C-alpha cells in the first residue's frame, strides 16, 4: 500500500504541474518556485508532515518536498543559532540533495556529449 500511495500521490502532483504548464502562460521556473514556496508554507502550517506520512516518497521527492525540507532546516537552525539560522538552515538541510544533483549531472555530462541547440 505504501508504494501505491507514493505512486498515485506523486503522479497526481506531477499531473497538476503538467496541467499548469500546458494550460497557463506561466513559465516553468515560476511554477517550480511556486511549488517550493507552497511546500515551505504547508510545512510552516504543519500540514505537510501528515501529508508526507500518507504519501511517502510521492510527497517528498517533488519540489513540494524540497520546500518543506528547506523550511524544516531553517526552523531548526533558527531555534539553535537565532537570526543567523535563517541563512544557514536551508543550506544545511538540503545540502545532500543539491550536492547529489550537481555530482550526477556532472557525471552525466562526462558520459554523454552535450550539444548546443542551434
Give a summary of the structure in a few sentences.
This protein has 118 residues and is mainly α.
Question: Could you explain how this protein is built, in words?
Answer:
The relative contact order is 0.11. The protein is an all-alpha fold. 82% of the residues lie in helices and 0% in strands. The mean pLDDT is 88. The N and C termini lie far apart (47 Å). It has helices at residues 2-23, 28-44, 48-55, 57-60, 63-81, 85-111. It contains six helices and no strands.
Give the overall form: globular
By DSSP (H or I, 4+ residues per run), the number of helices equals 6
- The SSE string, one letter per element, is HHHHHH
Strand content: under 5%
Helix content: over 70%
Keywords:
82% helix; SpoVA/SpoVAEb family sporulation membrane protein; 118 residues; globular; SpoVA; transmembrane; mainly alpha; transmembrane helix
Topology (elements, then pairings):
Layout: H1 2-23, H2 28-44, H3 48-55, H4 57-60, H5 63-81, H6 85-111
Helix pairs in contact: 2-5, 5-6
